[in-house]
Write a structure and sequence with these properties.
This protein has 379 residues and is of the alpha/beta class. The chain is built from eleven helices and 15 strands. The strands form four sheets. Strands 3, 4, 5, 6, 11, 12, 13, 14 and 15 form a nine-stranded parallel beta sheet that branches. A two-stranded antiparallel sheet has the order 1-2. A hairpin with a 6-residue loop joins β8 and β9. The radius of gyration is 20 Å and the shape is globular. It binds ligand FNR. The site of ligand FNR has 22 residues, from α10.
């Protein structure tokens, strides 16, 4: 861990820690400002659309790391309208020009692969079937981020033990498809109360088979997915996102510190490239000051690249890097609203405000608004 004098030196020398180069496995990054995965609900019929070419390419810098919006691994993944998938040939083909555009500008692009599990409704499922989960306990209806709409979740169907390898296989195939589409790697979405998290967290997972109960058992599904993907595409192309402290969709854990640490330590066995952890401060009602540096034990335990996300601004992002609490910092809302975020950090420019109403838009509205129309700095 760097001492405060390192931070002071960086400041005195005019170095902006977030904008220093970093070697992430085989990827040479020119800076440490990562585009966090951001669901935008503009992939009509679960197929990425040409308008995503401009959106992602606007947020690309030479040597910058981008993580795609969460992308479904199979036709049971859905929990929201118009989120992209990567299980069909059509979807793979549709991703190709988007990935090409990022590569044309020298960016490094990981595809976040996803299954919502019980955070779903029968209306999103093939043949109106029940969503799958680790459990048959449903999520109580929740007010959506616009403060008005209420999301209704259907009672899930608990996966049988013998079905679990099939879901692991879906993740494996999705990773293979992502590489075929040209992505540099995949980020396994193990965060935010979705299917993988529904196995990890003891407030959800009430299984009595080898996938429930002890910490080891609850993590088994995650590690099986990691192992299958590592075997399929190589550890150098695999990252994972985890949020041990988050309680979205009623997926909390009684001991998030132990869960996070066990995951970080155990992941070393697979040699994956990065571990992307979400700060506890994104948990409802938890303020930044209440949980300083909670991810440090996990950062120390994990041997690969560590990425933090959740509520970061320019200054605390710089501090996290200067003090060696993270290698990289992912930005969600600020990057959504500031396509040239690294440049703005460089010159310490004011940031465009993000507009919550246009975070998610469905097919009857213009895909440009709140998507690819945020202004760049004038040069
Ligand atoms: C998100 N977030 C998110 N996380 C994830 O793992 N996959 C996803 O697809 C999404 N989608 C998404 C959409 C929108 C509109 C928002 C605002 C957030 C969470 C996101 O990656 C990030 O962790 C949070 O936004 C917190 O970071 P910031 O915004 O404080 O930098």
């Amino acid at each position: 861990m760097a001492t405060p004098s390192v931070r002071q030196n960086a400041a005195e020398n005019g170095i902006i820690p977030l904008l220093t180069p970093y070697q992430m496995g085989k990827f040479q990054l020119s800076h440490r400002v990562v585009l966090a995965p951001l669901t935008r609900q503009r992939s009509y019929g679960n197929v990425p659309q040409p308008h995503a070419i401009l959106y992602y390419s606007q947020r690309t810098t030479k040597g910058g790391l981008l993580v795609s919006e969460a992308t479904g691994v199979s036709d049971t993944f859905r929990g929201y309208p118009d989120t992209p998938g990567i299980w069909t040939k059509e979807q793979v083909e549709a991703w190709k020009p988007i990935v090409d555009a990022v590569h044309a500008k020298g960016g490094i692009f990981f595809c976040q692969i996803w299954h919502t599990g019980r955070v779903s409704n029968t209306c999103f499922q093939p043949n109106g079937q029940a969503p799958i989960s680790s459990t048959d306990k449903g999520v109580t209806p929740q007010i959506r981020s616009n403060g008005i709409d209420v999301a209704q979740f259907s009672t899930p169907r608990r996966l049988r033990t013998d079905e679990i390898p099939l879901i692991v296989n879906d993740f494996r195939l999705a990773a293979r498809n992502a590489i075929e589409a040209g992505f540099d790697g995949v980020e396994i979405h193990g965060a935010h109360g979705y299917l993988i998290d529904q196995f990890l967290k003891d407030e959800v997972n009430d299984r009595t088979d080898q996938y429930g109960g002890s910490l080891e058992n609850r993590c088994r599904f995650t590690f099986e997915i990691v192992e299958a993907i590592v075997n399929e595409i190589g550890a150098d192309k695999v990252g994972i996102r985890l949020s041990p402290f988050a309680n979205y969709a009623e997926a909390g854990d009684s001991n998030p510190e132990a869960l996070g640490l066990y995951l970080a330590e155990s992941l070393n066995k697979y040699g994956i490239t990065y571990c992307h952890m979400v700060e506890p401060r994104m948990k409802k009602m938890v303020e930044k000051s209440e949980c300083p540096h909670s991810l440090v034990p996990m950062r120390k335990a994990f041997n690969g690249t560590f990425i933090v996300a959740g509520g970061y601004e320019r200054e605390d992002g710089n501090e996290a890097v200067a003090e060696d609490r993270s290698d990289l910092v992912a930005y969600g809302r600020w990057f959504l609203a500031n396509p040239d975020l690294p440049r703005r950090f460089e010159v310490n420019a004011p940031l465009n405000k993000y507009i919550r109403d246009t975070f998610y838009i469905t097919s009857d509205l213009d895909p440009v608004i709140g998507y690819s129309d945020y202004p760049f700095l004038e040069t």
